[in-house]
Amino acid sequence: MTSSALYTDHYELTMVEAAMQAGTASRRSIFELFPRRLPTGRRYGVVAGVGRAMEALEHFRFRDEELAFLREEQIVSAEVLDWLADYRFTGSIWGYPEGELYFPGSPLMVVEGGFAEACVLETVMLSIYNYDSAVASAGSRMTLMAGDRPCIEMGARRMHEEAAVAAARAAYIAGFASTSNLEAGRRHGIPTAGTAAHSFTLLHETEREAFEAQLRTQGKGTTLLVDTYSISDAVRTAVELAGPELGAVRIDSGDLAITAREVREQLDALGATKTRILVTSDLDEWQIGALAAAPVDGYGVGTNLVIGSGHPTCGFVYKLVARALTDGPDAELLPVAKTSANKSTRGGRKYAVRRLDERGIAEAEVVGVGSRPESDHNDRPLLVELVTDGKVLAGEDLEAARRRHWDSLAELPRAARKMSQGDPVIPTLYESDYE
Amino acid sequence: MTSSALYTDHYELTMVEAAMQAGTASRRSIFELFPRRLPTGRRYGVVAGVGRAMEALEHFRFRDEELAFLREEQIVSAEVLDWLADYRFTGSIWGYPEGELYFPGSPLMVVEGGFAEACVLETVMLSIYNYDSAVASAGSRMTLMAGDRPCIEMGARRMHEEAAVAAARAAYIAGFASTSNLEAGRRHGIPTAGTAAHSFTLLHETEREAFEAQLRTQGKGTTLLVDTYSISDAVRTAVELAGPELGAVRIDSGDLAITAREVREQLDALGATKTRILVTSDLDEWQIGALAAAPVDGYGVGTNLVIGSGHPTCGFVYKLVARALTDGPDAELLPVAKTSANKSTRGGRKYAVRRLDERGIAEAEVVGVGSRPESDHNDRPLLVELVTDGKVLAGEDLEAARRRHWDSLAELPRAARKMSQGDPVIPTLYESDYE
């Protein structure tokens, strides 16, 4: 990443300008990134993007080319340009760690700093959290439905090329086994996978020639795509050429449940009892669930993953919830909130815990407003320190995020596993100092 | 952009590997990028991403860091690594120009080259076209409904940070007047706009103080956000401070039609008859249409634009449609197609024209298969040469794309303007040499 500084809405800089002139730019402030609600019908959400957000924070630097643009377009004054040129976030950030689950009102990120330095982070933080968490939240439902069968992410072609890399990363956090996306492999170390498309079969005179060419370079453990012409012909040819060591066949069209059964019977009859069956073709969590009883060994998921299975954004917002009454680092914080119709906010600094019952099953998301929720309950704290006095504390750890996702999911009541539309599986309770 | 080479699915490189060993890698081939259908209910689509795709093609270079990854992960052999290190696309590409409209089956991009060199472009081309065209297609319906009133793109916060820049670009092609996205301003020269968020009001002791601070730096022509607390109080304060020269007020919540009427009456009563009213808050094409009779002067559109108003991807595919029978540049081309259930393709090189009636109104999208449609009709050719023998012919021209969008839209039958669900507004007709 070069600079993330202009992933920023124009109005953030005009606010900095006005606040500087008004003398309020460095007033101590708390911004909060949170969901007002879950996407309709969803039982839980999955936090992703934290590692990317921290990287963006470290690259939030206004270099000559960014400053030149702002100067030429006269977006801010010389005074603000000087301030931007020296910009380093000096505040602190607490947040839900990557892979954690969330519910309506979960304070996913709590940013404390001067008004201006925290204000300018709004857009880039929202961009990252809103997309990455949308994909992870959809992906989690898919891996839940897939059970022990691996899911392969292959949606790059259906989404913006850089968003696709983020999607592969988010899917991996949500339990996907691998991705087709080479840049995601290079950048994030996610295992990559892939063998051949229909075009490879069509390039050759016969399907047999195409299979021979693929087997020659990739070995018998490869996956042969068997639905370019007749599936039963292709399966017969595949086993004839590779024998029972053939790794897998892929089916990309038709009624997958029926076809998988037919192909399984044919493979078994031909002695290829260990050859696996992979299915692709517009899968989503419901389709995967519907294939649970079919003899399928793995799912390739594309479009519906990268578009968040109907919810391509989480609708997170980033709001000022408290600010100092006066200047200076020790000034008392005043909770602030807007009262706009159907978009009001809840003022005050937030803390959050997941309340568990005696068996360790989640009962509620408890949000303390103004102070930590105090109780003799079995409460698991949710906020960790991500940034202290401008220093990013933790690097990206996708394996830890993957484990956290499974662990947090295991904690939820069983209703979380329902794919039908419903309410959040646990309620959000507020414990406020101000009410 | 540094390198676009790894915005590529793993299987494309394994296909290159197998084709090289089989001796078929350089066989002359035609790939086609096309939509099987429009999103459900849509009447037309808008092509966007062409300029970005050409830039990605020029940056499709495997440098040391990309090659090192492929080598370490043993994704391809040393022979293929050498081939990739020298990769330069040497073929030719024809396509619909940016801003043009499309219909089911429109051959949006026709790529001619060796199999391997054309095959590896699949993912990056699809990523760009699928997202950018999804946003432009949604944006076009919004500007259509907005009529003479300007639309401002402000969706960055709800979509991946780089996708958001592409969205601002696509929206501009579709007639949006400006964007909040500073990086889109810097990179693509799109006008940027923005004034203040609720946090700026909340930062100050009173709304009056916040307005005073904003007016001091931005002048009376600015836009004041009036729904942090009571709208009528805010409007009164705003006009008190700025007088009738106040540029605009923004309303971001509540029932926008009713509120806009109340605010208009109040502004007029206060003598601020020239002060404009901007509305934001989850607008889409239907909401904009519903506000046509309200005294609104501009629309800020965010979420629903960047997620394609329910259709965040176009579902374009990239398929081999013809290949040489033998090696060599002059070998005869054979149409090829897969017959997969519900996903079959139509083999053969495509040409396309928009057939117009005697008044210049579009009647049909006519696709010639194997040769140009020939007729004594009033046919407007749709394919332009984008790349010749590896050389990209045209740079990005967003103003031309904007004009093309309006001109092509003006050519459509009036039913194109219906926001209700319906069929494509013109049929796609095939004229085939092979049938």
UniProtKB/TrEMBL annotation, chains A, B:
One Pfam family linked to the record: NAPRTase_N
Biological processes per GO annotation: NAD+ biosynthetic process via the salvage pathway
Annotated InterPro entries: Aldolase_TIM, NAPRTase_N, Nic_PRibTrfase-Fam, Nic_PRibTrfase_pncB, Nicotinate_pribotase-like_C
Catalysed transformations (reactions): 5-phospho-alpha-D-ribose 1-diphosphate + nicotinate + ATP + H2O = nicotinate beta-D-ribonucleotide + ADP + phosphate + diphosphate
Description of post-translational modifications: Transiently phosphorylated on a His residue during the reaction cycle. Phosphorylation strongly increases the affinity for substrates and increases the rate of nicotinate D-ribonucleotide production. Dephosphorylation regenerates the low-affinity form of the enzyme, leading to product release.
Keywords linked to the UniProt accession: Glycosyltransferase, Ligase, Phosphoprotein, Pyridine nucleotide biosynthesis, Transferase
Gene Ontology molecular-function annotations: glycosyltransferase activity; nicotinate phosphoribosyltransferase activity
Main EC class the enzyme belongs to: ligase
Superkingdom of source: Bacteria
EC assignment: 6.3.4.21
Record-annotated Nicotinate phosphoribosyltransferase N-terminal domain positions: 6-129
Keyword Transferase: yes
Region of interest (Disordered), residue spans: 416-435
GO CC terms: cytosol
Keyword Phosphoprotein appears in the UniProt entry: yes
Protein task: Catalyzes the first step in the biosynthesis of NAD from nicotinic acid, the ATP-dependent synthesis of beta-nicotinate D-ribonucleotide from nicotinate and 5-phospho-D-ribose 1-phosphate.
PANTHER family: NICOTINATE PHOSPHORIBOSYLTRANSFERASE (PTHR11098), NICOTINATE PHOSPHORIBOSYLTRANSFERASE PNCB1 (PTHR11098:SF8)
Similarity section: Belongs to the NAPRTase family.
Protein name (record): Nicotinate phosphoribosyltransferase
Organism of provenance: Raineyella antarctica
Organism lineage: Bacteria, Bacillati, Actinomycetota, Actinomycetes, Propionibacteriales
